[in-house]
Amino acid sequence: MGRREDARQRFLRLANARVNKALKAIALVGNLSNRSNYSYSDRDVARILSAVEGAVRNCKWRFDSAGPTKGPDFKLDG
């Protein structure tokens, strides 16, 4: 049972670090909404939110089953 506890502790450590990092990254994306600093279109916003929502859907799916390890990278064209 010691090994199982080690796996649990590793999961907790990594989950805490990775979820907090993801939340901070999402907050930084939200900072892009400041129109006094940035210029963007409604289409840009829709693509950004679609990419983030897709990543969350993929994450949920992976916890429910053995899904793919990584989705496509995101890039807006200027």
What does this structure look like?
The protein has 78 residues and is mainly alpha-helical. The chain has two domains: 1-31; 39-78. It is 68% helix and 0% strand. The longest helix is centred in the N-terminal third of the chain and has 30 residues, at 2-31. The chain is elongated. The chain starts with a helix and ends in a 14-residue tail after the last helix. The relative contact order is 0.07.
- Overall pLDDT: 89
Rounded to the nearest angstrom, the radius of gyration is 17 Å
Q: What structural class do the secondary elements suggest?
A: mainly alpha
- Outline the biggest β-sheet: none
Low-confidence stretches are: none
Strand content: under 5%
**Number of E strands:** 0
What's the helix count?
2
Apparent shape: elongated
Query: What distance separates the N and C termini?
Result: 54 Å
Fraction of helical residues: 55-70%
